[in-house]
Amino acid sequence: MRDLGAIFICCLTAILAGGCSNGIGRGGKTPAPAQNATLSTAPAAAADVYFFVATESPISNSYAPEMIRIAQAYAPKGVRCHFVYADPDVTRDQANRHAAEFGLKSAGEVVYDPDHNVITRKVGATATPEVAVVTPPPAPDAQTRPSEYGLVYLGRIDDAYVGFGKRRTEPTVRDLRLALDAVLAGRDVPTARTNVIGCSIPTVGK
What per-residue confidence (pLDDT) applies to 68? Predict the structure, then answer.
């Protein structure tokens, strides 16, 4: 069942943002089916980035251009991006259409996770647009600490939003980029957890 408080916040945010668009029924080419993926299957060379997105969240939708920029900037460095649709009330077709409408399909893999068993529950994502950064497991003979692989970041993309309906012209801290730069440089992520301003991901039974 949906969190009524989260629905109210999302609706209020939609009003403040001038409405929301999920891109359903706007025509265009039919996108390829959304794919299921797991944490451990064919990991990226450096890191996998999981963006948790929503079809009807103005805040999530407003971040689509930045998600695409990050995907394009870091792909040559071994970072692979995924766009996760975890709302059980969103159909696979709606997820596909939304991903195509906002340009996400061409920037990475679309992951349909309505039961939260693919990735949502594994990383502990609870909101959109939350993002998780997962590094691949080490080679069998590698000498490495547990903190050096696995889930290394979970939180906001940046600090552009200071509250619902309140957005800076430009963010002052680009948390996701800082996390990825640290991973690529072999350093600890400076801030491993941050709070997200957005809509709650509806819960489902385990």
Answer: 98
* 133 phi/psi in degrees, rounded to 5: -115, 125
* Average pLDDT score over residue span 143-164: 79
Residue length of the chain: 206
Burial 121-139 (b: 16+ CB within 10 A, else e): bbbebbbbbbbbbbbbeee
- Is the residue at 51 inside a domain? yes
What's the CA gap between 8 and 185, in Å, rounded? 41
Residue 190 is assigned to a structural domain of this protein: yes
Kindly report, residue by residue over 18-57, the tens digit of the pLDDT.
333 333 222 233 333 344 444 434 566 899 999 999 999 9
Residue 168 maps to which CATH number?
3.40.30.10
Domain coverage including residue 138:
4-200
Q: Report if residue 206 sits inside a domain.
A: no
pTM confidence score: 0.77
In what order do the strands lie in the sheet containing 150-155? 109-112, 79-85, 47-53, 131-135, 150-155
Domain count, the chain: 1
In a domain, 120, yes or no: yes
